[in-house]
Design a protein that fits this description.
The protein is mostly helical. It is built from 21 helices and five strands. The protein has a three-stranded mixed sheet with strand order 1-4-5. A two-stranded antiparallel ribbon has the order 2-3. The longest helix has 24 residues.
Length: 415
């Protein structure tokens, strides 16, 4: 069964194109008219970060860092603010890597440097950073999905075509298969690409993001009727999806097929997978108390505008943060309304970039948790411990052992 958070994630979050100029407020000033102290700037920046004013926070915290002599704690806070503001180039320059930096900050810093290196066409640098042991939880999925595209950037197509796997991470499996399909297409191994696309759009039809990827592939192969049939089937399930409507209209009108994703676009597409992590890691992200009162429903990205270069050539502007729609039961709605900025900050800090720009509350019952599966003990699970003399203790241990064997057997059957 598809979760709505994955099914509605219809546009890649283009972190790789997020190095943009931004408008910021003026530096806060003291009553005497002079610039605030480094501590005052730090407080102003931290307050702006808590309020979700990430661009202002990045500005104030950078000034605090400059005035405070590169204090490690201030530098790490400035790094976080730059990420949340979408200034990946600045964040890469501030990436914490000293003995006083937190482990989480170091891991995210290395991932940020790898992303920036790829954006700068420095594939070998990106590969070296991703190949280090310093990037782990919670970024294993992002590393796994970026790695094939980084390999492609240095011309190592054998490594690029290895499908990424992170045990137990369904998001990596799903998005990794889409990425592998695009890389097969890039290598002109079209039959293998189509096998992947069919696999991810099979069953109940596949999520819309998989359908548009497969449809674009069919259009590029000159198979417009097949693409239209694919879009029609998807629109029958979700007739309101604008991306599907636009794709169907393009194919029906015989307009040019969408270009295959570039290496940078493919890598950015892979970073969409952490959005699915909101489902499984919600409690770890927002904390146990908030997780009991809320549930992520879907992510929606704004339409990506175009900007013109100096020569008038139009290109996509930087992708803005998504809106997270979150379920809250009625009596708690007002209380959670006041905590939206806090929740957004926790989500963005967890992923290390400005994944969420806004939160909308949906007053609705929370999904009921599924009861844990109880493994049925069979005669084959019987455990005997004749060496234990105490009958009561022996019976308890034998019952425990049989239960463990049953759980292991059930787990093996699930896999």
């Amino acid at each position: 069964m598809r979760h709505p958070l994955i099914a509605t994630a219809c546009v890649p979050f283009l972190l790789l194109s997020a190095c943009v100029s931004v408008k910021v407020e003026a530096t806060p000033r003291s009553a005497t008219g002079g610039p605030e102290s480094a501590y005052g700037l730090f407080l102003a920046g931290s307050s702006a970060l808590s309020d979700g004013r990430n661009v202002d926070a990045a500005r104030f915290l950078e000034l605090a860092r400059q005035q405070g002599g590169d204090d490690p704690s201030v530098t790490e806070r400035a790094f976080t603010a730059a990420l949340m503001a979408g200034d990946i180039e600045k964040a890469a320059a501030l990436a914490p890597d000293g003995p006083e930096a937190s482990d989480q900050g170091k891991r995210m810093g290395r991932l940020t440097r790898a992303v920036q290196a790829l954006a700068d066409n420095k594939g070998k640098v990106a590969r070296d950073v991703l190949g280090s042991d310093g990037i782990g939880f919670p970024h294993r999925g992002a590393v796994a999905l970026l790695t094939p595209w980084v390999a492609a950037s240095v011309g190592d197509m054998d490594a690029a075509l290895v499908r990424p796997i992170v045990r137990g991470d369904a998001g990596v499996d799903y998005f990794g298969q889409i990425g592998q399909a695009h890389l097969f297409e890039r290598s002109r191994r079209f039959d293998e690409a189509e096998t992947n696309f069919k696999a991810i759009t099979g069953g109940d039809g596949g999520a819309d993001i998989a359908v548009t990827s497969y449809g674009g592939f069919l259009e590029r192969r000159g198979r417009r009727p097949d693409a239209i049939a694919l879009y029609d089937a998807a629109l029958a399930r979700n007739g309101s999806n604008p991306a599907l409507k636009a794709a169907r209209a393009r194919a029906a009108a015989g307009r040019a097929a969408p270009a295959a994703p570039t290496i940078k676009e493919g890598a950015a597409f892979g970073l969409l997978a952490p959005a699915a992590t909101l489902i499984t890691d919600w409690e770890a992200i927002v904390g146990k108390d908030l997780a009991k009162q809320t549930a992520p429903e879907k992510l929606k990205w704004p339409r990506q505008p175009e900007v013109a270069d100096a020569d008038g050539t139009k290109k996509p502007a930087a992708r803005q943060g998504a809106t997270l729609f979150m379920r809250v039961e009625g009596p708690r709605a007002l209380e959670i309304e006041y905590k939206r900025a806090q929740i957004a900050e926790r989500v963005n800090a967890y992923f290390g970039y400005r994944a969420v720009a806004d939160i909308r509350i949906i007053q609705a019952p929370l999904p009921k948790p599924k009861p844990p599966r109880v493994a049925k003990v069979t005669p084959a699970d019987k455990v005997t411990l004749p060496a234990v003399q105490d009958e009561t203790l022996r019976a308890a241990l034998e019952k425990l052992g049989a239960g463990i064997k049953a759980k292991k057997r059930a787990g093996t059957a699930d896999r």
